[in-house]
Model the fold of this input.
Amino acid sequence: MISNANDLMERLRKKLETERREIEELTADELERLAGNSRRAVSYALRTIRRDTEVATGRMRELLMKGWMRPLIVGLSLSLGTFGGSWATMRWLSRSIHTRIEARAELGRDIEDARRTLAQLEVDTWGLVFHEIKGERFVVVPDGVLDRPPWRVDDRPALKLSNE
Done:
């Protein structure tokens, strides 16, 4: 068989065309396989990122819960302690004041009883008062009882009693 340049060219062109189609098919297959691998890698990376983000978000939520709960608990404890301490102090002060008011009222009654008793004694003793000064005894009489008193005690007239 005789080949000429055109036939050779035609065979070369067909061969080049066949090789080009094979290269394009191989390239397309390789690109599809690369795209599939890329999709799987991207999909895996996306799932990993989502999972890591969820884990980090969960940890952050936990830290935030602990972060605001601790001051809340401390604040509530301090508030309750302050309230309880104030209440107890007010109760103690109230009882103390009430006790002192009752004691003062009782002392006032005792003083009034003593004044009445003293007034009654002055009436019963006619105003006479007994004094002892350096071993000597005196009876102090009301003013105006003696014209010229021989003794004076606390600038009041007095009579000296014998030591026998």
About this structure: The chain has a mean pLDDT of 88. The two ends are 188 Å apart (CA to CA).
